[in-house]
Amino acid sequence: MLESLTIPVVLQIAGIIIVIAEIFIPSGGLLAVIALSLFGYSLYIVFVKISFFAGMCFSIADIIIVPVVIIYGLKALSNSSLALKKTLSSKDGVCSQSPELEQYIKKKGVALTDLRPAGVVSIDGRRVDVVSFGEYIEKDTMIYVYNVTGNQVIVRPDLQKSENV
Fold first, then answer.
1. Which pLDDT tens digit goes with each residue over 78-113?
2. Distance between CA 47 and CA 90 in Å, rounded?
3. What confidence score (pLDDT) does residue 88 get?
4. Ranges of each domain in the chain
5. Which CATH class is domain 99-161?
6. Around 152, how many Cα atoms within 13 Å sit in the side-chain half-sphere?
7. Contact in structure between 11 and 38 (CB atoms under 8 Å)
8. What is the Cα 50 distance to its own chain's centre?
């Protein structure tokens, strides 16, 4: 009986090793499929060639061991050199929005290209990539900066000077 357990136990251990490998090696689920196949074949051998009771014992062991291995593997992954440990924060000088774009809010300029809705405008003699508020704005139309969101400067046509320059 002990000899008949050798192959299923080896398959179970190989399945656990492959589950651990799946945690650290991105395989798109291929390693997980291989591990499930090993577990399934091992259980098939135990249920068919040994006994129903032995098969249930293996199944219960898999139900307990595999989640524990996954949890500890994920914890090990978070502490390994494979994980990104540095957090990006404004204290370190990282910001998602360019602070110089904030200066353009409420300023006026002229469209250097057609804004469909993206294009280029001139504000205070500087070329700035902008988007309109969803509308088409023709070249040489006076605009004003409505808002800055992220790295996106949002403009609207200046209705006080609606005629083209």
1. 777 766 666 766 666 666 666 678 888 888 999 999
2. 59
3. 67
4. 2-79, 99-161
5. mainly beta
6. 9
7. yes
8. 46
